[in-house]
Design a protein that fits this description.
Blueprint (H helix, E strand, L loop, with lengths): L4 H6 L3 E4 L3 H18 L7 H15 L5 H16 L6 H16 L4 H8 L6 E4 L2 H14 L1
Parallel strand pairs: 1-2
Helix pairs in contact: 2-3
């Protein structure tokens, strides 16, 4: 998330796709099977699939280690006070401070809270009606 700040600052719109865990799990399994059958799965095997499902489930259910919760809270608090645009050195320092686990948004709640700073240009798509509204908005911009 952190390393995306310059991109997010300059974006006209930010689209956040949020599907229910059951939908995501179904799609993960489906894609894994299809790619495996075609022989193009970069992560073949049932162990890879189970590991990915387990990590995805933790993300959706906002489960992570207690020390990571503390780090996420510090990161979100700092984000509220930092300037909109960071120079490359400030951005690198921030990434090093919080580490790879935060950069990748460890939970769905963290991602939502992090994107709160950009709420004026954030579009959340949860279902077909939201998708239709997004497509209408984009069509009107043409």
């Amino acid at each position: 998330m952190i390393w995306n700040d310059p991109i997010l600052d300059h974006a006209d719109y930010i689209v956040l796709l949020e599907v229910p865990w059951r939908t995501a799990a179904y799609r993960i399994v489906r894609r894994h099977i299809i790619k495996s059958l075609r022989g193009i799965n970069p992560y073949p095997g049932i162990r890879s699939l189970i590991s990915f499902l387990r990590n995805s489930r933790r993300y959706y259910l906002n489960q992570c280690r207690p020390d990571l919760v503390e780090t996420m809270n510090r990161c979100l608090e700092e984000q509220r006070t930092i300037p909109a645009l960071l120079d490359p050195e400030q951005l690198l320092t921030r990434c090093e401070t919080y580490g790879i686990e935060i950069i990748q948004a460890p939970t769905a709640t963290f991602r939502r809270q992090y994107l709160e700073k950009y709420k004026q240009k954030l579009i959340v798509v949860r279902n077909n009606a939201d998708r239709a509204r997004l497509l209408n908005l984009l069509a009107q911009q043409r």
